[in-house]
Amino acid sequence: MEILKIVGSFFIQPLFLVGIAFTFLLYHLRLRNERKNFRIAINKDCFEIRHFIKKGLSWGVIISIFSIIIGIYLPVKDIFLYEILTIGALICLPIIDLSSVPLYCLGVVSWLKQPQILPVILLLLGLNYFLKARLVGKKDQIWFSPQEKEGKRGRRIAEYCFREFAIFPMVILIPGNITKYCGFLPLLHFGQFHFSFFILPFLAASSGRILKETPHAALEHYRKQYQILAILAFMSFGCSLFVSKIAVGVLLGLAAISCGMLIYRKLLDEQSNQWYVETSSGLRVVAIRPDTPAAKMNLEPGDIILNCNGRAISNENQFYAALQLNSAYCHLKVKTFDDDLKITEGAIYNDSPYELGIVLFQSKH
Question: Which CATH code is given to the segment(s) 283-359?
Answer without folding.
Answer: 2.30.42.10
